[in-house]
Design goal:
alpha/beta, 15 strands, 375 residues
Length: 375
């Protein structure tokens, strides 16, 4: 949970859930909500896949999923896992042998629906491989691929059908005394996803993997994901998230972090508060923010920065941020530090100066944390 005694209206009470491990990353319980993405390379192309994983990890991904549709992919997993700085989830759909091979290759988690891989004996074989290799599982229910008997029963994909599918798969694992699993019930429809997740949250204490599947392109998908996941996260539902955009996987990670940052559930990097600009602006706000987002992307230390075009809202926003710049007149503006006026700075030198101040503050915070840990 987040707890703010000064502003209790910002508190989020997270749904209690069991904690599992996805490699070195805890999911559920009191663990931070982790951010995931998925590669879109040919998994058998180790170099391309690892390059994409490294970029996602640099952007903040805690976990990365790769597809394992064939034997060539599971063979490549050995090297991919060895070179990845984050735990790897192997995406398995129907082939139980691929699940066993992925576990043996070092995958931290298998994305699988146990009921789709055949007989009870095959399910037991996969569970044994997962248990032997310290591998967790994700049950991944999707509205677009529900079992035929559930579609016959309910007539169409609906929250009840999705949750029933998930609970059926859970039972297969629990009947084999396997409990290291998380679960998702994804749909591309925001209403269907939200209702299914709300019902699922009441039906199980398993960690929940949150997502709006096949959300769309960068802008439309980011909005749809923010609306769907944001409301669920605000209600305390969700232990790990994946934004599904038709875009570079790095963008999945960035949008996911922004959703969590907006709710105070995770903090990473510089959060820029900026105005949309208007005729009052004392400098080009839009161009400045774009430049700062690029030049400060390497900063991982949580920090807030306000960039406001004029003095109408600038001083008030600066009170709430670590650093700030408010436009003024005659080609200059005011730098704020810790909410207080500090010094004037010309518009021409403002970007370089702000980058320098942010980098200095990040170093100070790191030093303070090091000193605190040594005490």
């Amino acid at each position: 949970m987040t707890h703010n005694p000064i502003r209790p209206w910002r508190n989020i009470e997270r749904r209690p859930s069991r904690k599992i491990m996805v490699g070195s990353v805890p999911v559920g319980g009191d663990a931070p909500i982790s951010v995931q993405t998925m590669t879109n390379t040919d998994t058998a192309d180790v170099k391309a896949t690892v390059t994409q994983i490294l970029a996602a990890a640099e952007a903040g991904a805690d976990i990365v999923r790769v597809s394992a549709p064939d034997e060539a992919a599971t063979k490549a997993l050995h090297e991919i896992v060895r070179e990845s700085p984050v735990p790897i989830v192997a995406d398995i759909h129907f082939h139980y042998k691929r699940a066993i091979e992925a576990a043996e290759a070092g995958a931290a988690c298998l994305r699988i629906n146990p009921g789709n891989i055949g007989s009870a004996e095959r399910v037991r074989e996969v569970i044994k491989a997962a248990r032997d290799h310290g591998c967790s599982m994700r049950i991944g229910v999707n509205a677009g691929s529900l079992e035929k008997h559930l579609l016959d029963k309910y007539g169409e994909p609906c929250p009840e059908a999705m949750v029933e599918s998930g609970l059926d798969h859970i039972k297969l694992l629990q009947d084999n005394d396997f409990h290291e699993f998380k679960i998702s019930v994804k749909a591309s429809d925001v209403f269907l996803s939200a209702a299914a997740y709300q019902q699922l949250a009441e039906a199980t204490d398993a960690p929940i993997h949150l997502g709006i599947t096949e959300a769309g392109g960068f802008v439309s998908g980011a909005v749809k994901s923010a609306v769907g996941m944001g409301n669920l996260l605000w209600a305390g539902i969700g232990d790990t998230i994946r934004v599904s955009l038709s875009a570079d996987p790095v963008e999945d990670v960035r949008v996911g972090y922004e959703i969590l940052k907006s709710l105070g559930l995770r903090t990473r990097g510089v959060q820029i508060i900026s105005c949309p600009s208007c005729a009052r602006q004392g400098f080009d706000v839009i161009k400045t923010v774009q430049t700062l987002e690029d030049r400060l992307s390497h900063i991982k230390t949580p920090m807030s920065l306000s960039i406001i075009g004029c003095v109408v809202n600038g001083p008030g926003e600066a009170l709430m941020t670590d650093l700030g710049f408010t436009g003024g007149g005659a080609g200059s503006g005011m730098i704020y530090m810790a909410g207080k006026q500090s010094h004037k700075m010309s518009n021409a030198q403002m970007v370089d100066h702000i980058v320098e101040l942010v980098e200095q503050r990040a170093e100070e915070i790191a030093a303070e944390a090091k000193d605190s840990a040594a005490e």
